[in-house]
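Lecture notes, structural biology module. Today: joint structure prediction for complexes of four components.
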Amino acid sequence: MDSFADRTKRRLRDELLDAAYDAIVAGGYDGLRMNDVARRTGVSRQTVYNEFGDKWGVLQAVVVRETERFLLDVNAALAEQSDPIDGLRVAVERALTLAGDNPLVKAALSQPGSDQASQLLTTRGQQVLEVSHQRLDAHVREHWPEIPPEDATSCVDVALRVVLSHIVTPGPPPAAVAAQLARVLTPFLSSYRRQV
Amino acid sequence: MDSFADRTKRRLRDELLDAAYDAIVAGGYDGLRMNDVARRTGVSRQTVYNEFGDKWGVLQAVVVRETERFLLDVNAALAEQSDPIDGLRVAVERALTLAGDNPLVKAALSQPGSDQASQLLTTRGQQVLEVSHQRLDAHVREHWPEIPPEDATSCVDVALRVVLSHIVTPGPPPAAVAAQLARVLTPFLSSYRRQV
DNA sequence: ATCATCTGTCCGGCCTCTTGACATTTGAGG
DNA sequence: CCTCAAATGTCAAGAGGCCGGACAGATGAT
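The predicted structure, tokenised, for the full assembly:
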């Protein structure tokens, strides 16, 4: 069920992703060399292809893992609030702040030779959206079961897309964006408020 | 040189030894089951045989690893003293104290069904002696180069055997044994003292 | 135009782990 | 004393994954 081989497999994947992450942060997507990833992990180049298919697969896997870690942090911020509106505001602010400091986001958006990488947040952003949506949705349903699933999903979707847009195209500071979004969505969520 | 496969191999060995260690501490040598070690590590029974040869090999490997860890601690105590006699006393006391608290030593000496295990400290103790001697000798030569190698070796050998004897057959408390040994060997080492 | 570098693919060989079977030993219980 | 169950130790066949080398194609620099 959880054999040594399974754990080894996961570890291999994880170490490969570590190496790839470092390479991308250092030199953007174009600076990512399959051979470097392999050598730095102490494995053959072929093994990297076996694991991820191609270079694009490596980038996707790095981004998915990073997204999941990112969401853990955002969900933790969500969990600290009992009122849904407060949660929304805090989570949005946290997400935007985190993104601004995230080395991988910086590399994807501002490194020369990362046009392809940035597409994972825009035209090819389904994966990031899906992973994020799934995690946020599950969390919201668990913490605010009184909100109808459909309403929760709608809110998550709206907020998520607005946040992603602000990551790709920064505007006002995080707190301002969070306040704005909270204000706009408050009427929609007013019946579920938990005033302290 | 340090491929992923190498690291995995070391990790496998280490996890097997962890499982074996726990089993021995819990149930003595007789309570050690090859099948349990394998299953607990998530590996087949055959793999355990491939790695250690037989059950006796497992025990030996566990003891060698534990000895090396033990010596790291003792050598750290040695390193804190500038005077060789002080080092001797402090190291002896530390070794006896550590041994008294060590779960594996307890299991080997007092668990029912560990007669064979206890032999690794007595009639079949060459391995433990050699490993310990090697580590201590190297450490002494590095820290007190002014002591002739032959004298250093002799002192290490005498002290080591006395300490091992006191572990197997406890007598006075650690501090008393340490003081006694230091007093006896002081004349032999007097010319190398570094009085503070 | 040429050369070097990188991606992506294929394949044969090798090594390790797995699986199942088997003989042998040992201890407990009828 | 005999039997059964459990554990050790050995063997061989099979599978899976990694390695190493080779190759074609694309790309960019000189």
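Point to remember: The domain at 4-192 of chain B is CATH 1.10.357.10 (Tetracycline Repressor; domain 2).
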